[in-house]
Design a protein that fits this description.
The protein is α+β, with helices and mostly antiparallel strands and 762 residues long. The chain is built from 17 helices and 33 strands. The strands form nine sheets. The chain has a seven-stranded mixed beta sheet, sandwiched between helices. Helix 8 packs across helix 9 and helix 11 packs parallel to helix 12. The radius of gyration is 27 Å and the shape is globular. 56% of the residues are buried. The structure holds dioxothiomolybdenum(VI) ion.
Length: 762
């Protein structure tokens, strides 16, 4: 870890030396390490005698391997071994060994386990060589004889096989029971909408490819640099699959180049790299190719139907939301798609339904705002359709049905400043100048339209441990096995600790990304600040109290008779709140107390009894301007305003980055991203950056982020609720609604490509 501490402590101009306050903009403490290339990612760690593994993927979608011909590959100079299910080292046989901490119900995929092929692109062999080039070339020479069976990869052709999944996943909430009588209310209402939605498969495309470098020590200890959202989850998985004791495996993910769900579960390159390292008793690195990034979890293809009914004044009478999504043959990947429709708008009759269809694909995986990205999209486009049917402004319809208590259950919200999001967002955007009628503004060859949508996401808190060590020179090191996937964890945790201890940011280092550090949850669900941040605040409070006790014990101490409440930590000192001159520098206090280092540990457990009484959510209001070329159908999103209510914002700079990143991804969901399958082959065909479209700078125009004031001490002691996924939710719906407003064409499937815009649907 010393390398890391040095990199993080390198002088950085904008780290500043003044007091640090949360709620202000602070540049990333790891920014310099990243832009100067000091930050090492999973595939960049060196090791003596490193071997390189390249994965060979299945050409067939389903079947049984009859034979594998590895002779040509083995004949390539530099090739060390070709691992297949026939010669791999022993791995565990029980399902439980393969269950990582976020595994859904079912039987997890086991790479190179047996001769069974369950999806196209499945890893069937690992070629290991002295060089990457030799391994890559030899991998192209491995051939298979596969006894193929018919496969099904098309959701729309298999909807009749939909079933209700078992709710066996930590944190997964199945749809609640129906409220009221939705069908009767729908039938009786004067104004109604009944719409079907389709969302195609999306694949994770972080710039950093999935990679694992397994460095084997002489004693057999494995240090694994893995691209993951949890070093401890990967450590746990490797230990279980290979039967290795905890002290024989250390996983590190010091820097992660984007993950956003793809790194929640260990990916197969990890299993294969460890397999090869154990088999060959040497260090091994496996990096997936960009094509192979399309051979593991993806955002699932989903079809939805939303029925809404209202009185003529806009009062909602019925909400009915159904979703059918795909999963793999082996696991029930579940996400919360429809439940949001019971949390947003006041309504007496709500019916929600969620089903799965097993397709011959790899198990889907979470992708930023999993479930909400689809579910809120459908609800919010349907709300726009209802608004037009009512001849009402879409924002007025939302305000008319604003929920002050949770509609689907008898609970209050822990906090909900959504109304402020609507008001501030609309004002900043200039929403009141929007004509009600679509197709009413044209500039040059482009139709101009404005759309809006609501966003919602969970405000979660898990449990975490943290430790803090104050050194005699006044430097503080706080640790927890958290992860920074680029979201700013290093920075915000250091800020929380620096503020608590009254130290300049440059004297505080937050250590993360090592499985041997105190337990932290997986970085997912936008919960790291509420969870790890609260653990950091907790451990610092313990440190404060211990320091205070030491101060009281000093001979002639001015603090001897004061209460802890009466002191504060500021400017590198412990001092009286009311009399700042009565102060002792922490360095002097450490020295006078004979302390070289002072360590505290803390376990942060959420107050579940209190939290359970409230529905804990973050909200947003998104306003979008699009320009649609009447001849080409090209859509440009020229302006976005996103107003966010997510509790106290700890670092306004990195939080803004999270929201703008979410907006970009939302625009991407709306206009660009889709993995196209050739169902005859059961394979995704556009598996590269050329044909799988993501936005480039030219696609992204003005983005305006507003944080409305919220302070939620029910979700976390910091007042924070977590900010990340909420940036994406609702964006694609707002784009869809803006396209409708520009053109009068209602598009109910994503991505909304020019062919759909010109064709008028669906
Ligand atoms: Mo979260 S699905 O890990 O962005």
């Amino acid at each position: 870890m010393t390398d890391l501490i040095e990199a993080l402590q390198a002088p950085v101009a904008d780290r500043g030396t003044g007091p640090v306050r949360t709620g202000t903009p602070v540049s990333r403490v790891d920014g310099r390490a990243k832009v100067t290339g000091q930050a090492k990612y999973a595939a960049e760690h060196a090791a003596p005698d490193l071997a390189y593994g390249v994965v060979v993927s299945s050409p067939a979608a389903k079947g049984t391997i009859v034979s594998i011909d590895t002779r040509a590959a083995l004949a390539v100079e530099g090739v060390v071994e070709v691992l297949t299910h026939l010669n791999r080292p022993k791995i565990r046989s029980f399902d439980i060994a393969y269950k990582d901490m976020t595994a859904p119900a079912g039987s997890p995929f086991r790479p190179l386990y047996d001769n069974h092929v369950m999806y196209s692109g499945q890893p069937l062999a690992l070629v290991v060589a002295e060089t990457f080039e030799a391994a890559r070339y030899a991998a192209s020479l491995v051939t298979f004889e596969i006894d193929e069976e018919p496969h099904g990869t098309k959701l729309s052709a298999n909807l009749d096989r939909a079933y209700k999944p078992k709710p066996l996943k930590a944190g997964y909430e199945p749809p609640p029971d129906e409220k009221g009588d939705t069908d009767a209310a729908f039938d009786a209402a004067p104004v109604k909408i009944d719409a079907e939605f389709y969302s195609g498969v999306e694949h994770h495309n972080p710039m950093e490819l999935f990679a694992s470098t397994v460095i084997r020590g002489d004693d057999g200890h494995l240090i694994i640099h893995d691209k993951t959202q949890s070093s401890q989850n990967s450590r746990w998985y490797v230990s279980h699959v290979f039967g290795l004791p905890k002290n024989k495996v250390t996983v590190r993910n010091t820097y992660v180049g984007g993950a956003f769900g793809s790194g929640l579960r260990p990916q197969y390159q990890l299993t294969l790299a460890v397999m090869a390292a154990l088999h060959l008793k040497r260090s091994v690195r496996v990096v997936l190719t960009r094509q192979q990034m399309f051979t593991f979890g993806h955002r699932p293809e989903t079809v939805q139907r939303v029925k809404l009914a209202a009185e003529r004044d806009g009062t909602l009478r019925a909400i009915w939301h159904q979703a059918i999504a795909e999963t793999s043959p082996i696991e029930d990947y579940v996400e919360v798609v429809v439940n949001w429709s019971g949390l947003l708008y006041a309504c007496d009759n709500i019916k929600l339904d969620y089903k799965l269809v097993k397709l011959d694909q790899y198990t889907p995986i979470d992708m930023r705002a999993p479930g909400a990205a689809h579910g809120v999209h459908a609800l919010e486009v349907a709300m726009d359709e209802l608004a037009y049917a009512l001849k009402m402004d879409p924002l007025a319809l939302r305000l008319k049905n604003y929920a002050d208590r949770v509609p689907i259950e008898d609970k209050p919200y822990s906090s909900k400043e959504l109304r402020a999001c609507y008001e501030l967002g609309a004002r900043r955007f200039g929403w009141d100048r929007r004509p009600l009628e679509p197709r009413s503004r044209k500039e040059g060859t482009e139709w101009v339209g404005w759309g809006m949508a609501t966003g919602v996401w969970d405000a979660m808190q898990m449990f975490a441990r943290a430790s803090a060590v104050l050194h005699a020179d006044g430097k503080l090191v706080v640790s927890s096995a958290a992860t920074d996937i680029g979201t700013g964890t290093y920075t915000v945790m250091a800020m929380i600790a620096a503020e608590a201890m009254g130290l300049p940011l440059e004297d505080v280092t937050f250590q993360l990304g090592d499985s041997t550090l105190p337990v932290a949850p997986i970085e997912g669900g936008s919960s790291h600040v509420t969870t790890v941040g609260s653990a950091v605040a907790g451990v610092c409070e313990k440190l404060q109290k211990t320091l205070f006790k030491h101060a009281q014990k000093q001979r002639g101490s001015p603090f001897a008779d004061v209460k802890f409440k009466a002191v504060e930590f500021a400017g590198g000192m412990l001092r009286l709140k009311e009399r700042h001159e009565t102060a002792v520098p922490l360095t002097a206090l450490m020295n006078d107390s004979g302390l070289v280092r002072l360590e505290e540990k803390y376990l942060m457990l959420p107050n579940m009894l209190k939290q359970r009484k409230f529905r804990r959510l973050v909200h947003s209001a998104v306003f979008v301007e699009v320009r649609v070329d009447e001849q080409t159908g090209m859509v440009r999103v020229t302006r976005v305003t996103s107003a966010i209510a997510a509790g106290r914002i700890m670092n306004t700079k990195t939080a803004t980055s999270q929201i703008t990143g979410g907006i970009v991804w939302g625009i991407s969901q709306a206009l660009h991203e889709e993995s196209y399958a050739d169902h005859r082959l059961g394979r995704f065909m556009n598996h590269n950056y050329a044909e799988y479209h993501v936005p480039v700078n030219a696609d992204i125009h003005a983005m305006d982020v507003i944080f409305v004031e919220e302070d939620d001490r029910i979700v976390s002691r910091l007042g924070a609720k977590g900010v990340g996924e909420i940036g994406l939710v609702g964006v694609a719906a707002a784009v869809s609604n803006a396209i409708w407003h520009a053109t009068g064409k209602r598009l109910r499937s994503t991505p909304m490509t020019p062919d759909k815009v010109l064709g008028g649907g669906p």
